[in-house]
Write a structure and sequence with these properties.
9% helix, 58% strand, seven-stranded mixed sheet
Amino acid sequence: KAINIKDGSEIFMNDIIIKKSTIALSAEDQALVHFKKLTISDCKYGVVSYKNKPSAGYAKVEGSDLKLSNISENYLQERKSKIVINGKIVDKEIEDVELIIKKGEKK
């Protein structure tokens, strides 16, 4: 994971470039991530938002000016977690993001 924000933390990022990572940006367990101008390339997963610990809340990523290139899966968003890009909610929800990530690591 290039950038992994978790456990209720909040971060504001500007003008970030991420290359050659399995997971570019991950928010988990009630983390809140804000970004402007994020470029992600050559990664398996682009932006990931999920709940890892059963007792934790859901994560949220919101940002603008996102550029993705050569990404296997642009977004992994677990149900009730949110990814909002340029004011638009990513509508693809996944039941168990952690399971998908673990399966991907075994390949």
